[in-house]
Specification:
This protein is of the alpha/beta class. Helices cover about 35% and strands about 15% of the residues.
Amino acid sequence: MLNTIEERIKEGKFVLIAEIGVNYYDIAKKEGITPMEAAKLMIDKAKEAGIHAVKFQTYKAETLAAKDSPSYWDTSEETETSQYSLFKKFDSFGLDEYRELSAYCEKVGIEFLSTAFDNESADYLFDLMNVYKISSSDLNNVAFVEYQAKKNKPVILSVGASNKDEIDNTLSIIRKYNDKPVTLLHCVLEYPTPYEHANLNKIAALKQEYPDVTIGYSDHTKPDANYEVLQTAYNLGAQVIEKHYTLDKTLSGNDHYHAMDEKDAKAILEKIDYLDKIRGSYELKCLESETTARANARRSLVASGDIKAGEVITKDMVTYKRPGTGISATDYDKVIGKKALCDIKEDTILKWSMVSNE
C-alpha cells in the first residue's frame, strides 16, 4: 500500500488530504452515475490536481447516532436536522466497496484512508490503509481510541472542540498501545467555520506544546479567494492539511458548501510550493546566492596613504573600503603593528602577502 503521508512527513514535505467523506453520493446523483463511479471519478480528479491522499468516512447510521440526535451544522446550508437521518442517506458502502476503492487508489497512485466510526469498520480497514484517522468527535471516546491505537499504525487525530487535558489524555491512551507516528490536526467543529473563528494560532500552540508529534489542520472554512487561511495555517506549522473535497461546490447540503474542488486544490498546492520557495532554510549561514554580493559589498583594509616597505603599520595608515576581497575589516587589529613587506600605494586593497607575520 502507498504510504505517501508518512513518507512526506518524514521528508518535511507538505501533505494535502482531500476529505471526500461521502460527497460522492451527491456527485453520483448529479452526474447520473453510480456512487462507486462517482467515488472513483473524485479520486481521479484528486490525483490530477496533485493531492497526496483521499479520505472517506466509514460508518453505519445505526451505530453512529441515536435517532433523536440533533444537528450541529448550519441548517441553512444542510437542511437535515437529524444526524441519524443525514448519515442514513450515505452509509451504503461496506467492506467490499472500500476494498475496491483502496485498490483503485493504489492503481491510480494516491493514498487511501477512511475514518472508521465503529469497531467493525476499524477492523476491516486495517488491511486497506496505512494510517488511522480518528475524528474530533471520537477524541473522548476512550474505548474506541484504545481499540484503534492497538492496531499500531500511524494515527492522525483531529482535536476540534477539545481542551488540553482531553488531548493529553487521548495521546496517553494512544501512546500506551502504539509507538507509531502521531499527527494532531487543529480543527474547529463549526460547519462552515467563519474566518474569524478559525483560531489558527492554536496550530502554533499545539506545535509548541507537543514537539514530538506532527501538527496539521483540518479546515472547515469556505475556500477564500487567495487561500490565505490555509497559507497562514501552513506558516504557523501545519505540515498536514485536510480539507473537504467535492467536484461541485454549488451542491447543497452535506460537505459541499465548505469544500475545495480540484481547481482549489491545484491552487493551494501552488501557493504552498511558493511558500516553500520563499521560506527557505532554517540554517544560520550565508546563502550560496549571496557569495558574490558578500565579497563585493563587504569591506577590506585599504591603505589611506603611501606605505613604505619596512614601515610599521599604524592605525592612521589604514582605512576600510569595499570590496571585501582583501584583508577583511574583521582583521583590523591583526594588521596594526605589522611591518609592510613592500611599498604599498595609497588606496591599495591590502593582501596578507603585503604584511609580515610577526
